[in-house]
Write a structure and sequence with these properties.
CATH class of one domain: Mainly Alpha
Low-confidence stretches: none
Structural class: mainly alpha
Radius of gyration: 25 Å
Helix content: 55-70%
Largest sheet: none
Shape: flat
CATH architecture of one domain: Up-down Bundle
Mean pLDDT: 80
C-alpha cells in the first residue's frame, strides 16, 4: 500500500467516523428556542417595518474602513524590499495617521458608543 492510498483511506475513515459520531451524539429533541428564527434582536413575529437603528450601519462602515486598512497594509513587507522603501514607509505612516485621526474623531463624537 503506497502512501497516497494510505492517506486517502485514513482521511475517508476519519471522515466517516466523525460524521457517525456527530449523528450519534447530536441532540434530537428540538426545543422552541432553537426552532424560532433569530432576527438581530428584533421580534420576528412582529411587523417587518420596524425602524432600524442607524448605529448598525455606522458600525458596518467603520468595520469596512478598518478592514480596508488591513488590505492596504498587507503588501507592506514586500514593498519595503523596493529600491526606495522610505517612500513606501512614508505613505504607510500617512495612511495609519489618517485612520488613527478618524478613529479618534469617531471616539470623541460618540460614534463608537452603542447605548446612548
Amino acid at each position: 500500500m503506497n502512501m497516497i492510498t494510505f492517506m486517502i483511506a485514513l482521511s475517508l475513515a476519519l471522515s466517516i467516523a466523525l460524521t457517525a459520531l456527530n449523528f450519534w451524539l447530536a441532540q434530537t429533541t428540538p426545543d422552541s428556542e432553537k426552532l424560532s428564527p433569530y432576527e438581530c434582536g428584533f421580534d420576528p413575529l412582529g411587523s417587518a417595518r420596524l425602524p432600524f437603528s442607524i448605529r448598525f450601519f455606522l458600525v458596518a462602515i467603520l468595520f469596512l474602513l478598518f478592514d480596508l486598512e488591513i488590505a492596504l497594509l498587507l503588501p507592506l513587507p514586500w514593498a519595503t524590499q523596493l529600491q526606495a522603501p522610505t517612500t513606501t514607509l512614508a505613505w504607510t505612516s500617512i495612511l495609519i495617521l489618517l485612520l488613527t485621526l478618524g478613529l479618534v474623531y469617531e471616539w470623541i463624537q460618540g460614534g463608537l458608543e452603542w447605548a446612548e
